[in-house]
Amino acid sequence: MSSLLSLQGVHTHIGAYHILHGVDLEVPAGQLTMLLGRNGAGKTTTLRSIMGLWQASQGQVLFDGQPIQALATPEIAQRDIAYVPENMGIFGDLTVRENLLLAARRARSLKELDTTRLDWLFSLFPALKKFWLYPAGKLSGGQKQMLAIARALIEPRRLLLIDEPSKGLAPAIILNLIAALKELKATDTTVLLVEQNFMVAKALGDRVAVMDNGRVVHAGAMAELAADEALQQRLLGLSLAAHQ
Ligand SMILES: Nc1ncnc2c1ncn2[C@@H]1O[C@H](COP(=O)(O)OP(=O)(O)OP(=O)(O)O)[C@@H](O)[C@H]1O
What we know:
One of its GO terms (molecular function) is branched-chain amino acid transmembrane transporter activity. About 35% of the residues lie in helices and about 25% in strands. By secondary structure, it is of the alpha/beta class. The chain folds into two domains: about 5-80 and about 155-240, P-loop containing nucleotide triphosphate hydrolases (Rossmann fold), CATH 3.40.50.300; about 90-155, no CATH class.
């Protein structure tokens, strides 16, 4: 199994704090890898270290076999890696249309947007079509999350990093999100998805990595972890089991 992204012994310091203590992580091409772990385990810091938003102080981040840990964030993004942060990064005062257009690096006007791609995004997230000319700030939490993911997908991407998309969403909306992400999976996009919700993890994950205290402490098939309650309990404790 070939990895599109590989982290080898990545350490990250934030100011005086040593947060990542040698993260080893493999993200196979064409699969969806879940990154799980208790609060504060280092999941967001790992995504930010991949994107160059925190500089890794030691270790390697290899994308398609090339080291990227010394590159600046715009250069990393230019490799067609997209990041949907937990706060989604959408512009509340701008319309859905403007938010999508701003996210497209190559298209300067709506006419230049790839219409086939836009139609595909509308089929994944019908609310975007419905609220095309609405200010994004007026969308519901679930719709905002879908807009944030659509922004990341407005141009072809080789790797998508998504931080806790289900956070704060009602159960019915989470089901919609799972359905949309399943469709995305069917296109063989490589995804690294941070989650706290084990139901989402079980529904979507091909592979899983579990972090604790700034390290990956378990890696394997998602189905294996989903079938082993004792392992879930040991690795994730009650904070996650409560979401099942
Ligand atoms: N800007 C910062 N300054 C200092 N410490 C930070 C900063 N950002 C994160 N940390 C610390 O780094 C550790 C890992 O945080 P991180 O956000 O990566 O965890 P996480 O696994 O994503 O957790 P959560 O699920 O709660 O978002 C935590 O102890 C956190 O307090």
